[in-house]
Write a structure and sequence with these properties.
With 240 residues, the chain is α/β, with parallel strands linked by helices. The protein has helices spanning 2-22, 41-51, 53-57, 71-83, 118-130, 141-144, 152-158, 176-179, 198-208; strands at residues 30-38, 61-66, 93-96, 110-111, 135-140, 165-170, 221-229, 232-239. Strands 1-7-8-6-2-5-3-4 form an 8-stranded mixed sheet, with helices on both faces.
């Protein structure tokens, strides 16, 4: 009997470890775009426009997050904006964070620093909306995601009562080993989260884990999208 008891105990522990590793702690998410591989960042921008058509239509103020220093993220949103010409969908005003590299891709954009010039930004957004114009803001991903509690987009919502929808692009780990060094780091073990970005990092990690066994095609880009809040979406995007 003791022998059977220990076998059962070991089995329970093993199952617990399996579920802990497979079904990770983090915000609940809803898959919106299944894992896909595209030839160019612009192609993924078009895919987002197609697959999130209604969500975009319902978002007159969209915050488009990018991974800083990743030109492919900027190219993704450039492709999205150029393809989005449908009446009632098109973004008429593009506001770009000037500190981002490659801002020259958006020559038609208005350059306003989201964090340092928030009053001016809000004034511009409200003026555009009063004229029936749709607005897109292109900013760093940690400014855009609504999973961070006190970032600029949180202030737009709480302090200025703007009804914004976030579509945040981020790179992602492709193996469990990469999780250890990936930023923003997922902290789900009770440790202190000094940067306040752990929830965002966990959402990325948990979504990324579904891709680890996928075969990556050379010279392509891998992506998927998930909804992580009522008006909050993350788009994982890597160059293979």
């Amino acid at each position: 009997m003791k022998h059977l008891y220990w076998i059962g105990a070991v089995a329970i522990i093993a199952l617990g470890l399996y579920f802990t590793l497979t079904f990770s702690v983090g915000p609940e998410t809803t898959p919106k775009i299944a894992f896909t591989q595209v030839s160019t960042p612009e192609d993924m921008g078009k895919e987002i426009l197609s697959k999130l058509h209604q969500e975009i239509k319902d978002a007159p103020i969209a915050v488009l997050g990018v991974t800083p220093n990743k030109i492919e993220d900027m190219e993704l949103w450039k492709g999205f904006i150029e393809a989005n010409q449908e009446v009632g969908m098109k973004y008429d005003v593009i506001i770009v964070e000037p500190m981002l590299p490659y801002v020259e891709l958006f020559r038609e954009g208005v350059y306003i620093a989201m964090k340092d010039e928030m009053s001016r930004l809000v004034e511009g957004v409200n003026k555009a909306r009063s004229e029936g114009l749709r607005v897109a803001l292109i900013v760093p991903h940690i400014y855009a995601s609504q999973l961070l509690e006190s970032n600029p987009v949180a202030k737009l919502k709480s302090d200025y009562k703007l009804d914004v929808t976030s579509f945040t692009v981020s790179t992602f780990p492709v193996t469990r080993d990469q999780e250890q060094s990936f930023e923003p780091k997922c902290i789900d073990s009770g440790e202190v989260d000094p940067a306040g970005t752990a929830k965002f990092g966990c959402a990325i990690r948990n979504a990324a884990r579904r891709t680890y066994r996928k075969k990556l095609e050379p010279n392509k880009y891998s992506s998927l999208a998930e909804q992580v809040g009522p008006k909050d979406f993350i788009i994982l995007f890597n160059r293979n």
